[in-house]
Amino acid sequence: MVDFLLQIALGLNHLHCDQHITHRDLKPTNILVYEGKVLKIDGYGGVKKHAEDPHVVSKKKDLNSFYTAPEVLNQDVREVLAPYIQDIYSLGMIACDMMAKELP
């Protein structure tokens, strides 16, 4: 399980640091498992590129409330948050889901 979480974290690091994008819809159904041991992040329909201003998150209406940071769900602050916070929160929720087999 730790290896799976590490693979997701490394994938997010690549998206955030190398590609300057936020996934914005990270959840278990968007994590693909290949040959039982290699994970790939999928579901890039809501990806946001951060070329101009790295501190702006654009609005997305169909956010998944279980895996989305509560402050991101607040439309008033969604535009000013650091863009990657929602993916990091989602990773934490996926970790809780994997370890406890349920969401907090």
Give structural notes.
This protein starts with a helix and ends with a helix. The protein contains three helices and four strands, in the order H-E-E-E-E-H-H. With 104 residues, the chain is of the alpha+beta class. The chain is globular, with a radius of gyration of 13 Å. The longest helix is centred in the N-terminal third of the chain and has 17 residues, at 2-18. Helix 1 (2-18) packs antiparallel against helix 3 (85-100). The chain has a single domain, classed as Transferase(Phosphotransferase), domain 1 (Orthogonal Bundle), CATH 1.10.510.
Keywords:
two-stranded antiparallel sheet; Transferase(Phosphotransferase), domain 1; 104 residues; two-stranded antiparallel ribbon
Please describe the topology of this protein:
Elements: H1 2-18, E1 21-22, E2 31-34, E3 38-41, E4 48-49, H2 70-73, H3 85-100
Antiparallel strand pairs: 1-4, 2-3
Helix pairs in contact: 1-3
